[in-house]
Amino acid sequence: MAMRAHIQTAEMIIKILGSAAGGGFPQWNCNCRNCTAVRTGVPGFRARTQSSLAVSRDGVNWVLLNASPDLRQQINETPELHAKPEFGMRYSPIKAAVLTNGDVDHIIGLINLREAQPFSVYASDRVLATIKANSVFQVLAEQHVPRIEMKLNEPFALTGAGVDLGLTVEAFAVPGKVALYLEDTSSDNFGSKDGDTIGLKITDTVEKKSFFYIPGCAQVDEKLAARLKDAPVVFFDGTLFTDNEMLDQGLMPKTGARMGHISMSGEDGSIAAFSGLNVGRLVYVHINNSNPALDENSEARKTIEAAGCEVGYDGMEVRL
Ligand code: MLT
Ligand code: MN
Ligand code: ZN
């Protein structure tokens, strides 16, 4: 395979393509306070597509971190990801997609990338098995779109369509839960295993700088805290502000803990968990439409910002 590197910038470019959790914001069937506000244009609310990031080391070739059902819209709204005529009749800057779990909001966008365009899909054995079991993903023929298993805790170079992307990825298990449609209600933690929910450490192979991407996480345990200590940038699970907010709003009879998502607030929440970790920037992503912090004028938003954390938004760019 011919490897071409186009290292032009001195930094990684990270873009939030979608900052919302599954369902997006507003969610199609939801009349909660937030969804109603964003739908009717109340100031302080912005619409958000579903959960995905894109990262590039050279500004030319890009890696998707998760592929959301809104990917077509996200590509259209992101000039860096457009097809470019100077590269031929068929071309995409997207050279790889790395998946963190099998959730609908993280894998369905792969379907948008059909058309025999070469790129690589990276995922854990558990998530690859889910993709294999769903025959619709065969529209991504493996001769064009190889599926590459990420072994946990082993950094390796990301490549795709014959391009060395100048980045390494290390996948690691985080506390969490198997995708909703795969839950086995008769087993412990719904039959979840290591590899069902992973975090990613992405490292620039030249500059050796790293950031973390953890859009789904049930708990910041000691192991995860040690891993994240002193990280310059972490994009982290911002699904809910409080564990019971969906119940309290009459939306769904489930807590965040039941869904495998840590909350932002509270003693066991992520704001408290990160307070001693000396992380440079904590940027929340995968934000559910019930989260009061979606209102820029809310007390929840003030609490987050007072703690030095950030609420990610679609189109947000971080350079590292
Ligand atoms: C989640 O993050 O918990 C899932 O995306 C929920 C869902 O499948 O709707
Ligand atoms: Mn999700
Ligand atoms: Zn809603």
TrEMBL record:
NCBIfam families: PQQ_syn_pqqB
Family recorded in the similarity comment: Belongs to the PqqB family.
InterPro entries, sorted: Metallo-B-lactamas, PQQ_synth_PqqB, RibonucZ/Hydroxyglut_hydro
Superkingdom, taxonomy of origin: Bacteria
Gene name per UniProt: pqqB
Organism: Hyphomicrobium sulfonivorans
Pathway noted in the entry: Cofactor biosynthesis; pyrroloquinoline quinone biosynthesis
Residues in Metallo-beta-lactamase domain copies: 61-287
Annotated function: May be involved in the transport of PQQ or its precursor to the periplasm.
Keyword Ribosomal protein attached: no
Protein name as catalogued: Coenzyme PQQ synthesis protein B
GO BP, sorted A to Z: pyrroloquinoline quinone biosynthetic process
Keyword Transport part of the UniProt annotation: yes
Gene3D superfamilies for the chain: Ribonuclease Z/Hydroxyacylglutathione hydrolase-like
Keywords: PQQ biosynthesis, Transport
Pfam families registered for this protein in UniProt: Lactamase_B_2
